[in-house]
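step: validate -> pass
step: tokenize input -> pass
step: predict -> running
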Amino acid sequence: MNAVGVRVKSGWATAVLVVGGKGTGPHVADRRVVELSDPAVPGTRQPYHAVMEATPRTGARLERRLVGLVRRAAKTSVRQLLKHYRGGGYRPVRAALVVGSVIDPAAIANDHIRAHALEGRLFRTALEQALRAEGLRCAIVVERGAYTLGAKSLRRSEHELRRAVTALGRSVPGPWRADEKTASLAAWMALR
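step: predict -> pass
step: emit ->
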């Protein structure tokens, strides 16, 4: 069995494919960046910041356009990602998205901070919808509590879990940062 863990950012995400089986521990089969915005349209990287800078007359139309482009970019990127995995013989059926927050943007009074929350929700939901449309079951994990949740789910201490997640990165070339670690942890939990 295999699962995809994804650390969602504004306009992009880090995806990690984790493979595990009966009697074998998990290992990382792939790690890559997934675009959730359209590089040809810079406003799609932080769409609600662009909307904040628009006039009230053009803001709603700009929002609809940018949100549509983000949803299309997420759908295209997920299809390409899964096509690549399937071409390599992997068939992920589960995904776990690691996010910074799930706070309701309407609860935030500061316009700039609200724009960040709106973007977080947009990229999370666009990616989740694209994954579900491809038949993957999805879970959402808030980064701040990922290791606590993982320790309970995987029946290990947080310290052991952090060491194991760090060790998972030794099988892939390049840096193994916090984004890759939390994405792999989320995928590992999704395997359960």
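step: describe -> The two ends are 10 Å apart (CA to CA).
step: cleanup -> pass
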